[in-house]
UniProtKB/TrEMBL annotation:
The keyword Transmembrane does not apply. ANK repeats lie at residues 252-284, 356-388, 424-456, 457-489, 832-864, 865-897, 984-1016. GO terms for molecular function: zinc ion binding. Residues 1053-1104 form the FYVE-type domain. Residues 64-124 form the BTB domain. This is Ankyrin repeat and FYVE domain-containing protein 1. Residues 7-34 form a coiled coil. It comes from Parelaphostrongylus tenuis. PANTHER family: ANKYRIN REPEAT AND PROTEIN KINASE DOMAIN-CONTAINING PROTEIN, ANKYRIN REPEAT-CONTAINING PROTEIN-RELATED.
Length: 1108
């Protein structure tokens, strides 16, 4: 339909284009004449004048010179116009009129107007198809060429599905090839939509021409249209090749003969047979025409073909089926087909089989074609023959079709062999029983089927019926005397199967089979094995023995207990079975019942008065409770406990004397241990070594924690076991939980009301908290803090808490943990008054110091010796720590016990880096002195290379100190600073000289230090005794300018100055001398002194001789 619609759209578009083309041609011609059809012509040109003249002639008939007679009507016309439009009239010179017949006035009026105006009616209502056909006839009759083309194009636009056949006939009659071809194409496009009646009025010749042009199979089309007249023309036309033509097939594989039969054209079929059409032709699938007619249920066609000589014993090559098989399987018109073939059965092989080995009778039965089946039975068809699957007709009617009436017919013609036929080793009776088909079973038994026949596995129908638990069939077979005694070795298998089906089946056999020996068989044991206690009661009632034993000598009761059959054992005890019996390993029923968790059996045995505290292993083992708990039978254990079973059961177990609780901790059976604890056993009972030399005792709580038995720990805590008990290493259970990293156990321990064990120390001095902290078990430590916050403040013998120790150990992780969990730890002090920030200042980890400051540690807190954190930092030469402390408000001028501030301490300890940091802060007092009156210069002067840290030079430190003060102090104050004396009267220069620190001496001299300053002992650098005076000479030699003059009352030679003994100064070294000590005068060139000046004897020697 999609293709047809598309063709319709294309056709419509094509017709629109044709109409537009005709209009464009007309408009183009008019434009050439410069005149519009309905407008006034352009008389300015010759063509326009001619067109205007022709219009006037049409309207007024001026100059008319000939008359057209149309019947009784006459029309004026002009000869020149007629000869112009057509060559049909070439003899008009001597004629005054012409006569036209066979044309209506309406049609000729259209032609007449076209002669003068070259126009046709535009409206389809004014110019109907009928009128257009007449005009077209006139155009072709009188050779109006231009009008012919216009009419053909207009007719093509009018062609549709309804009129295409009639227009084709019109075009064929008028021999208009263009229109005929166009109509033919339309017919071909819609061929399937046409009915034969559409072509009924079409002439045989036209129809044959149409079919030949548009049909691939002309003969098939003729048959479909049922046109025998066309068929005759076709036969005449193809007489030389008629035999091939009548046997040609179409796209669907249909031959003309088959098509005629399908269409019911018997007359045409007869004519085809006369022309040698084959009635046994096969299609591509290999089926004959007769088979296909059978499939359609066309008895008339089948009879026609049979009489025409079709092969009634034709066999399909692939399937092996005959026409009988096809009729048996066919669903169309079964009765008529059966009646038809019945008349031809004598000429057909009734027992021919297809590739599946099926006869026509089998096919009839399979497809339910009862009528044909009865015809075949009466005609002697083989009823025993089976197909490839071994199925006979009776098999199918009984089991597949369930048709007892037809089965009766088959048995009637087949007898006993049919009833007892074997299919793959099974008789029909076996099959009917296996299918639970009671009706079929009854049918077979009634028709003498063998009831005790065995199949290829020697199984009888009765055994199958029992296995399928079909009581109805079992009763039926036993009613027909089916035998219970079997020829196989295992005669009890049938009884086992009966028991497995329940009491109803067992009752049937108990009632109807009196020859079964129930006491001899193992039916009772099997019934107990399958939990069929109701069946067991029945077996006992008919003779089964309760006390029967197996090959090991175990009674049925022992067997049931060993198989953990609580219900079976209880059943036997209720029937009076002996509960005092023992198994082959001398175990009692009580012990076995406890071991296998048979609570009902255990309850019954305990109710019979047995000793529930009897020990296993001949009195040296635990009670039966241990077996019950070991196997997880807690309901049985609860029963034993409720009856007073011993929970402790102290006994020897390996190398220890211990309770049952310790045994279950040994085997890591936590559930059993929890059960004992919750049941009230002694949770503090220690296990004791059998060796008297080993005094180690272990309690359940320690062992449970070590074994990760946390539920047992929880139970012990709940039962108020002693949690503070210590082992040989002084550890509590909490210590072990931390050591084993057992968070769950610790959580359970901390749930105790009394957590005093958190303060207990082991032999290494660790509490559980400290152990957790130093082993980085912070989750465990957090749990302890949450339970008892003050554990973080625990201290050692030195008064150091855990935070102090962590800081000293440079353990940032522990520090952060303690700070996050306890703010009090940061404020606590040790025995020396130092807190955590003092320790942090001496540890090479800035993060620890910063975190302590973040939590609010006092940066200026002092220890007992007056030291602050800043003092500690500069002692250790930690510049980064110093900077951090200063940034956070550390007072650099706070003094310690020596009255020394941070700068003095840094210089004393040679901490050059810290000195640089301190001097970079303007708030640091660089002029401070200690209690000995010593400034930073004094302390720096006595520094030697061995005393400075990191082998730094004291000269560098001295230079920094002097430079900083020189920049900030006035000259006089700076001079006083450089020559400041300590309590002993020593200046920095004097101290440096005394320790031989020449570099510091030279640095001080560069900054103007006085060389001749005298200390409290009256000594100067000139009089101080040293092993050699080389340093003094070098200092004098290094002078670059005259130093400041010293003052005093005594000369270095011992002379005291007075009015008579004047003071003099050496212009080279600046010391105070008398006249005798400075007798020489000389110029000092290095000072730029050209005149002679007083110089001491020592300087004279240096200046004249130099340093040796």
């Amino acid at each position: 339909m999609g293709t047809s619609n598309h063709l319709d759209l294309l056709r419509g578009e094509y017709l629109d284009l044709q109409e537009r083309y005709a209009q464009l041609q007309q408009q183009y011609a008019i434009l050439q004449a410069r005149v519009e059809p309905d407008g006034s012509p352009d008389t300015g040109c010759f063509a326009g004048q001619l067109f205007d003249t022709m219009r006037n002639l049409f309207e007024h008939h001026s100059f008319s010179d000939i008359t057209i007679r149309l019947g009784e009507n006459e029309l004026k016309c002009h000869k020149f116009l007629l000869t112009t439009r057509s060559y049909y009239w070439n003899d008009l010179e001597n004629r005054d009129f012409i006569e036209i017949s066979g044309v209506t006035l309406e049609a000729f009026h259209v032609v007449y107007r076209w002669l003068y105006t070259d126009s046709l009616p535009r409206s389809a209502s004014q110019f109907e198809t009928r009128l257009l056909q007449e005009v077209c006839q006139v155009a072709f009759r009188f050779h109006f060429g231009a009008l012919q083309s216009r009419c053909v194009q207009l007719l093509k636009t009018r062609v549709d599905v309804e009129n295409c056949v009639s227009l084709f006939e019109f075009a064929d009659m008028e021999d208009i090839a263009e229109l005929r071809d166009y109509c033919s194409a339309v017919v071909a496009a819609h061929w399937k939509d046409f009915k034969p009646e559409k072509f009924a009025q079409l002439s045989a010749v036209s129809l044959l021409r149409l079919l030949k042009k548009n049909s691939l199979h002309v003969l098939h089309s003729i048959i479909q249209l049922n046109r025998e007249d066309v068929l005759l023309l076709y036969f005449i036309e193809n007489d030389g090749k008629i035999s091939n033509v009548v046997n040609t097939v179409d796209e669907q594989g249909l031959s003309p003969l088959e098509l005629s039969l399908v269409c019911g054209r018997i007359n045409i079929a007869s004519q085809l047979l006369q022309k040698n059409a084959s009635c046994n032709a096969v299609d591509q699938s290999g089926y004959s025409i007769l088979m296909r007619m059978i499939d359609k249920g066309d008895a008339v066609a089948c009879e026609f073909l049979a009489k025409a000589g079709a092969d009634l014993n034709f066999v399909h090559a692939k399937t092996g089926s005959t026409i009988l098989h096809r009729i048996a399987c066919a669903n169309m018109n079964r009765s008529a087909m059966a009646q038809w073939i019945n008349s031809w059965l004598e000429r057909i092989d009734l027992d021919s089989v297809d590739i599946q080995g099926r006869t026509a009778l089998l096919q009839c039965v399979i497809y339910g074609n009862t009528e044909l089946a009865k015809f075949l039975l009466r005609s002697g068809a083989d009823v025993i023959k089976a197909d490839n699957e071994g199925k006979t007709a009776l098999f199918i009617t009984l089991f597949d079709r369930c048709d007892l009436d037809l089965s009766e017919e088959i048995v009637k013609y087949g007898g006993d062999p049919v009833v007892n036929h074997m299919v793959h080793g099974d008789s029909l009776l076996h099959i009917s029983v296996r299918k639970d088909n009671c009706e079929a079973t009854r049918f077979l038994l009634e028709h003498q089927a063998s009831v005790d026949v065995g199949n290829n596995e020697n199984i009888t129908p009765l055994e199958i019926a029992v296995k399928q638990n079909n009581l109805a069939i079992v009763n039926l077979l036993l009613d027909y005397n089916a035998s219970v005694k079997l020829s196989r070795s295992n005669d009890d298998s049938l009884l086992h199967e009966v028991i497995s089906k329940g009491t109803e089946m067992l009752n049937v056999f108990a009632v109807k089979c009196k020859d079964i020996n129930w006491s001899f068989s193992d039916a009772l044991s099997y019934a107990l094995n399958t939990k069929a206690l109701d069946c067991a009661k029945i077996i006992v009632s008919v003779g089964g023995q309760v006390e029967e034993k197996d090959s090991y000598g175990n009674s049925l009761l022992i067997q049931r207990i060993l198989l953990s059959d609580d219900a079976g054992a209880s059943f036997l005890l209720e029937l009076g079975a002996d509960h005092s019996a023992k198994d082959s390993k001398e175990r009692t029923c009580l012990e076995l019942a406890a071991l296998h968790g048979l609570i009902n059996t255990l309850r019954i045995i305990c109710g019979l008065g047995v000793n529930i505290n009897e020990r296993s292993d001949r009195g040296s083992g635990y009670t039966v409770l241990v077996h019950t708990l070991s196997e997880g039978h807690y309901d049985c254990a609860a029963l034993l406990v409720s009856l007073g079973c011993d929970l402790e059961s102290v006994t020897l177990d390996g190398s220890y004397v211990q309770t049952m609780l310790h045994h279950f901790i040994d085997v890591v059976d936590e559930q059993a241990a929890v059960f004992l604890i919750e049941s009230g056993c002694d949770g503090d009972a220690a296990r004791v070594p059998r060796d008297s030399n080993n005094s180690i005792k272990e309690t359940p709580i320690h062992r449970a924690v070590s074994a990760q038995m946390n539920k047992a720990v929880a139970a012990l805590v709940t039962s108020k076991a002693n949690l503070s008990v210590q082992d040989s290493q002084g550890r509590t259970a909490c210590h072990i939980a931390v050591q084993e990293r057992n968070h769950d156990a610790l959580s359970e321990l901390l749930k105790a009301n009394d957590v005093g064990f958190l303060s207990i120390r082991d032999k290494f001095g660790h509490t559980p908290f400290s152990q957790a902290l130093f082993s980085k078990q912070h989750m465990l430590a957090t749990a302890m803090i949450n339970r008892q916050p003050h554990v973080a403040l625990q201290t050692n013998a030195n008064g150091e808490n855990l935070l102090h120790i962590s800081v000293k150990s440079n353990d940032l992780e522990s520090v952060l943990f303690l700070l996050s969990n306890s703010n009090d730890a940061a404020r606590a002090v040790d025995g020396t008054g130092r807190n955590a920030i003092h320790y942090a200042a001496d540890v090479d980890n800035e993060l620890i110091l910063r975190n302590l400051l973040l939590v609010g540690c006092d940066v200026n807190v002092t220890a007992n010796d007056g030291s602050t954190a800043l003092h500690v930092a500069v002692r250790g030469n930690r510049p980064h720590h110093t900077e951090i402390l200063l940034e956070n408000g550390a007072d650099a001028n706070q003094v310690d016990g020596r009255h020394e501030n941070a700068l003095l301490i840094a210089v004393r300890h040679g901490s050059l880096d810290c000195v640089k940091v301190l001097l970079s802060h303007s708030s640091v007092d660089g002029l401070a002195v200690n209690k000995n009156g010593q400034s930073a210069l004094h302390l720096c002067a006595v520094l030697t290379t061995e005393k400075t840290q990191s082998r730094t030079s004291s000269i560098e430190m001295c230079e920094i100190l002097l430079r900083r003060e020189a920049q900030s102090l006035p000259e006089k104050i700076f001079s006083a600073y450089v020559d400041l004396r300590d309590v002993d009267g020593n200046t920095a220069l004097m101290l440096a000289y005394m320790v031989g620190n020449g570099d510091v001496c030279r640095c001080l001299l560069r900054y103007g230090a006085t060389m001749g300053a005298r200390n409290a002992d009256g000594a100067t650098i000139f009089t101080y005794e040293t092993p050699t005076r080389l340093l003094l000479f070098r200092l004098l030699d290094s002078l670059e300018r005259e130093p400041r003059w010293s003052d005093g009352d005594v000369c270095d030679c011992g002379v005291r100055f007075s009015i008579t003994v004047r003071k003099h100064h050496c212009r080279h070294c600046g010391r105070l001398v008398c006249a005798k000590c400075s007798e020489v005068t000389m110029p000092i060139a290095k000072f730029g002194e050209e005149k002679r000046v007083r110089v001491c004897s020592l300087c004279v020697e240096v200046l004249t001789k130099g340093v040796r």
